[in-house]
Amino acid sequence: MSQALQTAVARQRMLLQGRLAGLLERLVGDCRAVWPERAGLERILADALPNLPSCKYLYVLDGDAHQLTANLSPQGWLPEHLGRNRRERPYLAEALAGARFSLSPVYLSRNARRPSLTAIQRIDDGEGGLLGFLGADFDLRELPLTREIYQQPEHWLQLKGDPAIRGGLFQQERVESLMDRRIDEILDLLVELVAAHGVFHGKLHFSSSRATLWLIEDPFRFRILDYEDLANPGICLAYPRQAYPADAAIPLERVGEVFRTFRALRFMDENIYLRSGSLNIFNGIVGLNFSCDGSHYMRWEEFLSKSLGFWIGTGEACAVESETG
Question: What are the two backbone dihedrals, phi and then psi, of residue 151, each rounded to the nearest 5 degrees?
């Protein structure tokens, strides 16, 4: 997990912990007063559940992590869990080590197979001695947090691909595809679709001679164009006219540079060459997948600043001059 993603997850856990710790702590005294009477403990759980509206299961364990009560859920009691030994469950590790309150990492639940987490509150005898534990299970999708959309960092990201492909890199050579034969016309067509027909994310698959497009007017569905489509400029008639968006991260006049640089990377070497390239105009990220199956994601400015020498060590300039007229 990247550092940025870890930070986003940690922030949500802190919010959850702050919300749940106080709610469960308030039940400790009530549980202590009736300990270890099952009926009394279950009555306390029934009274507490309305204050935990997102709780899936609420239960009490003894000091050895054997269940003293049935599971209480919003749908009613589940007595089949009475006597269950939870000692080996990972979410109890911190509590058994002495933590007063602990919140488990997210895990997949055994039955529903959905992301869940468990809060465990220690119940003591008032003098520090352990009586047992109060457990509360939560389904992640039902927790009432206002989660901010995770923002992907914009720094250059490099990912290794299939090691079998990397190992055989120099035993393979680029085979001319149908797209390679008319690459200049096809790249010009893609630039036109971005500039005037609402395509905000386009990916060219050079080796298989196809393109995958996402449109501003219909962003939840992608379109696949094969070679016959891409070789016919008339396909522009199938897409509504739409002005280039003012809030795009890359200026319109630089879009063509990105696609022409894809061309340079496609033909730069017979062993190391571009298999696919993509551009998203709203986040300004260029995606690249090479013959070694390695992938790169970077800002368009950084992409255009690289030379062919950066990719294969020849020193030949890779960035293409802007065409402004």
Answer: -100, 120
Strand partners, 286: 279, 298
Backbone angles phi, psi at 190, to 5 degrees: -65, -40
Look at strands 199-205 and 210-215 and give their pairing: antiparallel
- Between CA 170 and CA 167 the distance in angstroms is 8
Q: Find the Cα–Cα–Cα–Cα dihedral 294, 300, 303, 304, rounded to 10°.
A: 150
> Which amino acid would we find at residue 34?
V
Q: pLDDT truncated to tens, each residue of the chain (325 aa)?
A: 556 666 767 777 787 788 888 889 999 999 999 999 999 999 999 999 998 878 899 999 999 999 999 999 999 999 999 999 999 998 999 999 999 999 998 888 877 788 888 999 999 998 889 999 999 998 887 765 545 554 555 666 666 655 645 555 556 777 899 999 999 999 999 999 999 999 999 999 999 999 999 999 999 999 999 999 999 999 998 898 999 999 999 999 999 999 999 999 999 888 888 999 999 999 999 999 988 767 899 999 999 998 877 876 543 334 443 343 3
- Partnered with residue 197 across adjacent β-strands are 242
In this structure, the dihedral spanned by the alpha carbons of residues 149, 150, 151 and 152, taken in order and rounded to 10 degrees, is -140
Bridge partners of 122, per DSSP, are 133
**Contacting residues for 258 by C-beta, under 8 A, at least 6 apart:** 250, 279, 286, 300, 303, 304
Stated length of the chain: 325
**Cβ atoms of 49 and 72 closer than 8 Å:** yes
- Asked whether 114 and 65 are in contact (CB, 8 A), the reply is no
- Tell which residue, 153, 155, 158, has the closest CA to residue 289: 158
**Burial label, 49 (beta-carbon count in 10 A; 0-12, 13-18, 19+):** middle
Question: Which pair of structure tokens corresponds to residue 100?
Answer: 């007063």
Q: How far apart are CA 71 and CA 69, in angstroms?
A: 6
The two tokens of residue 69 are 């009560």
